[in-house]
């Protein structure tokens, strides 16, 4: 009898334990389900475009699948940084050029139309803060269209609106330069885009700040902005009037007189590099600083820009090339007939390969180092397939090799000048193919 009681009690507690475990498991599952549902409800709405069966476009929440805007657009673009998206009504898809025509507007990340569908073109404008893009507003157009074979959007009038659609400037400009300068925008009235050169020409240029206030009057033949002007820290703006160049500050005050025939822009780094910019007057070149002070005399026939290495400036005088530093001191004598320079879209700069620069003297090529010491004798007729004659720097291969031409034959040397492939081949390609495995 006692054994039966013990067994009964054990069974009772065992069953109770199993039941409690099942109940606890069910509770945990319910809690996890509630947590998932809560997380799903609390997830931010993330819109993405979707095309419906009738061909129209709308936006749905990527996380929940809920339709946030009806399918009523002829074009719905993806969101940029989850901030805004462009949508269009009335446009059509062109096989060659993409989506054309119609009217554009903007929706925010909730699907609300913050800018009505009334513009022929909309482009975003950004501030640059520590190299980060922050949406500032939009440049908008009414009356323009895509034209010519270059697929340029031209015509109509441009203006600025903020992120809410509020007008910053009226739509009165014929051109607004996007990514113009970090504190405002280069603008034009009276110019045109649709012409035989596919370039925007004519009219008068000026400058407006980010509130739309005109700070440089629209009177110049050009006001220069740059592709990456967030790097422009000197605060000066290059302008051109009646064929002469000078600089004004961000208030429109002239800081460098408009008296120069040309300027030597150094590309993405800004107008002034190490506080200097190359300028020409009466056919001669030199360098000035931000105040207009002449730092390097305007006496040279040609100068490179300052975007190369170690601040060396290549100069030409009386048909001979050499190098000076940023103070104008001669570093390498002006005795060479040609240099292997690199063209970067803004001018020529000094490019050393393996710490060496190709130079030509008495119709023979070789290499010097940064102080002018001859490292590879100047005895070759051509280098690397005569690539120097195209105005491109002679670059050694990743293996530190270079094809050279001497007495109508090609071979390969290394960066010390040692002959790796005998100079017996009929082409540079044949010489490279004959090089030993290293």
What does this structure look like?
The protein is mainly β and 438 residues long. It has two helices and 39 strands. Strands 4-5-8-9 form a four-stranded antiparallel β-sheet, with no helix packed on it. Strand 37 and strand 38 form a beta hairpin. The longest helix is centred in the first third of the chain and has 41 residues, at 2-42. It is extended and about 90 Å long. 31% of the residues are buried.
Strand line-up across the major sheet:
4-5-8-9
How many strands? 39
Helix/strand/pairing class, anyone? mainly beta
Tertiary shape: extended
Q: In what range is the share of β-strand residues?
A: over 45%
Largest sheet, in brief, is: 4 strands, antiparallel
Helix content: 10-25%
Mean pLDDT: 81
The helix count comes to 2
Q: Which stretches of 5+ consecutive residues score pLDDT under 50? A: 227-233, 385-391
Radius of gyration, in Å, reads 34 Å
Calculate the terminal CA-CA distance, rounded to whole Å: 94 Å
Give me the secondary-structure topology.
Elements lengths: L1 H41 L4 E5 L5 E5 L5 E7 L1 E2 L7 E6 L2 E3 L3 E3 L2 E6 L4 E7 L1 E9 L2 E16 L4 E11 L4 E7 L1 E2 L7 E6 L14 E6 L4 E7 L1 E2 L13 E5 L2 E5 L5 E7 L1 E3 L12 E5 L2 E5 L5 E7 L1 E2 L9 E5 L2 E5 L5 E7 L1 E2 L1 E3 L4 E3 L6 E5 L2 E5 L5 E7 L1 E2 L17 E6 L2 E6 L4 E7 L2 H6 L5
Antiparallel strand pairs: 1-2, 2-3, 4-5, 5-8, 6-7, 8-9, 10-11, 11-12, 12-13, 14-15, 15-16, 16-17, 18-19, 19-20, 20-21, 22-23, 23-24, 24-25, 26-27, 27-28, 28-29, 30-33, 31-32, 33-34, 34-35, 36-37, 37-38, 38-39
């Amino acid at each position: 009898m006692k054994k039966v009681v013990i067994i009964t009690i054990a069974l009772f507690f065992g069953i109770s334990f199993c039941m409690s475990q099942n109940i606890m498991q069910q509770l945990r599952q319910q809690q996890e389900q509630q947590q998932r549902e809560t997380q799903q409800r609390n997830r931010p709405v993330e819109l993405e475009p979707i095309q419906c069966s009738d061909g129209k476009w709308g936006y749905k929440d990527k996380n929940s699948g809920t339709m946030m805007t009806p399918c009523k657009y002829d074009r719905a673009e993806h969101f940029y940084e989850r901030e805004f998206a462009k949508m269009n009504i009335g446009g059509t898809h062109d096989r060659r050029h993409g989506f054309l025509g119609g009217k554009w507007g903007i929706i925010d990340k909730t699907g609300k139309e913050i800018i009505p569908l009334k513009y022929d073109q909309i482009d975003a404008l950004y501030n640059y803060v520590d190299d980060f893009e922050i949406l500032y507003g939009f440049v908008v157009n009414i009356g323009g269209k895509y034209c010519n074979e270059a697929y340029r959007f031209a015509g109509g009038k441009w203006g600025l609106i903020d992120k809410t659609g509020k007008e910053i400037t009226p739509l009165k400009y014929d051109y607004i330069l996007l990514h113009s300068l970090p504190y405002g925008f280069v603008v034009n009235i009276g110019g045109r885009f649709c012409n035989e050169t596919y370039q925007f020409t004519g009219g008068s240029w000026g400058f407006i700040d980010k509130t739309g206030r005109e700070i440089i009057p629209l009177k110049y033949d050009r006001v220069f902005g740059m592709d990456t002007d967030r790097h422009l820290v000197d605060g000066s703006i290059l302008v051109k009037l009646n064929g002469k160049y000078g600089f004004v500050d961000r208030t429109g005050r002239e800081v460098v007189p408009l008296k120069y025939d040309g300027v030597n822009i150094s590309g993405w780094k800004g107008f002034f590099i190490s506080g200097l910019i190359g300028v020409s007057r009466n056919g001669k070149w030199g360098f000035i600083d931000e105040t207009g002070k002449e730092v390097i005399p305007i006496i040279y026939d040609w100068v490179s820009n300052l975007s190369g290495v170690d601040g060396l400036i290549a100069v030409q005088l009386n048909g001979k090339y050499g190098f000076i530093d940023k103070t104008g001191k001669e570093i390498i004598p002006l005795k060479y007939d040609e240099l292997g320079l690199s063209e970067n879209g803004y001018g020529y700069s000094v490019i050393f390969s393996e710490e060496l620069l190709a130079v030509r003297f008495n119709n023979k090529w070789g290499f010097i180092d940064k102080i002018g010491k001859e490292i590879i004798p100047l005895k070759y007729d051509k280098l690397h397939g005569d690539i120097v004659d195209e105005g491109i720097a002679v670059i050694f291969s990743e293996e530190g090799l270079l094809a050279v031409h001497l007495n109508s034959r090609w071979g390969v040397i290394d960066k010390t000048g040692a002959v790796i492939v005998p100079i017996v081949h009929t082409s540079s390609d044949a010489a490279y193919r004959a090089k030993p495995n290293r």
